[in-house]
């Protein structure tokens, strides 16, 4: 599904990705973890063609993504911070994004129901709470039914019930055979959903495998302690 070979990216003197090699198979939930500033969003944006790497190759669904844009039609992406014109009403932004992607699906109906957004459809984005905005962003992400879904901090601002609904939504997408890539600092969420994790540290992949393999490697009882032990070893 995704092949990344020897990917390098610098911002000025800041070497963010130092030769990333990663292979992600089709189907399943993969979590990209790492401390703040470790390059998770940069790696995701390289996959989406939003950041141009200095060197290296990325192939997504057998398409080399360099100088290509069509492959993006098959990816649903939730950015860490989504910015839409705040004067638009919720129903207007949904219609606009649907129009832009020439989508024929009606999937937004069930998503609006899932996240209980009916009372907000006629409200302007500027007037919504942070969590409600995030639910709108989730509708905008999941309504296209693409085979690859990339979620950058999807739980941001969500209350516990919405958190649970999101988790169930991600599971039901996985059951359809989709590939879901998630970054999150909420380790209990990652532990509940991820089939595999990739841990980025100082521009390199420190670990790539299952959570139980990481627990064995670090000799820790859960993901939180496993990550803490990596970080305390590297920053000690
Ligand atoms: N457009 C940019 N211009 C300059 N520096 C950037 C740019 N985007 C990211 N960086 C730098 O690259 C590094 C990695 O940032 P990135 O957003 O990929 O980290 P992250 O792992 O997603 O962090 P977080 O967990 O805080 O979201 C940081 O030092 C950041 O300041």
Automatic annotation (TrEMBL):
<dbReference type="InterPro" id="IPR003593">
    <property type="entry name" value="AAA+_ATPase"/>
</dbReference>
<protein>
    <submittedName>
        <fullName>Cu-processing system ATP-binding protein</fullName>
    </submittedName>
</protein>
<dbReference type="GO" id="GO:0016887">
    <property type="term" value="F:ATP hydrolysis activity"/>
</dbReference>
<feature type="domain" description="ABC transporter">
    <location>
        <begin position="2"/>
        <end position="227"/>
    </location>
</feature>
<dbReference type="InterPro" id="IPR051782">
    <property type="entry name" value="ABC_Transporter_VariousFunc"/>
</dbReference>
<dbReference type="GO" id="GO:0005524">
    <property type="term" value="F:ATP binding"/>
</dbReference>
<dbReference type="InterPro" id="IPR003439">
    <property type="entry name" value="ABC_transporter-like_ATP-bd"/>
</dbReference>
<keyword id="KW-0547">Nucleotide-binding</keyword>
<dbReference type="InterPro" id="IPR027417">
    <property type="entry name" value="P-loop_NTPase"/>
</dbReference>
<keyword id="KW-0067">ATP-binding</keyword>
<keyword id="KW-0813">Transport</keyword>
<dbReference type="Pfam" id="PF00005">
    <property type="entry name" value="ABC_tran"/>
</dbReference>
């Amino acid at each position: 599904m995704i092949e990344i070979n020897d990917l390098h990216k610098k911002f000025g003197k800041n070497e963010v990705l130092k030769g990333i090699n990663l292979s992600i198979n089709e189907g399943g939930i993969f979590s990209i973890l790492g401390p703040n500033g470790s390059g998770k969003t940069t790696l995701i944006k390289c996959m989406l063609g939003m950041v141009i790497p200095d060197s290296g190759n990325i192939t997504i669904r057998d398409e080399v993504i360099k100088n290509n844009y069509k492959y993006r039609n098959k990816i649903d992406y939730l950015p860490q911070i989504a910015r839409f014109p705040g004067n638009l009403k919720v129903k207007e932004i949904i219609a606009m994004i649907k129009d832009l992607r020439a989508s024929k699906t009606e999937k937004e109906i069930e998503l609006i129901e899932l996240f209980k957004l009916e009372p907000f459809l006629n409200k302007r984005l500027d007037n919504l709470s942070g969590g409600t905005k995030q639910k709108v962003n989730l509708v905008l992400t999941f309504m296209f039914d693409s085979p690859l879904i990339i979620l950058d901090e999807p739980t941001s601002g969500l209350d516990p019930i919405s958190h649970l609904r999101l988790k169930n939504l991600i599971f039901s997408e996985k059951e359809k055979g989709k590939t879901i890539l998630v970054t999150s600092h909420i380790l209990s969420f990652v532990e509940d959903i991820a089939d595999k994790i990739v841990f980025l540290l100082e521009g390199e992949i420190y670990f790539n495998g299952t959570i139980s393999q990481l627990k064995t490697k670090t000799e820790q009882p859960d993901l939180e302690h496993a990550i803490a032990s990596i970080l305390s070893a590297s920053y000690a």
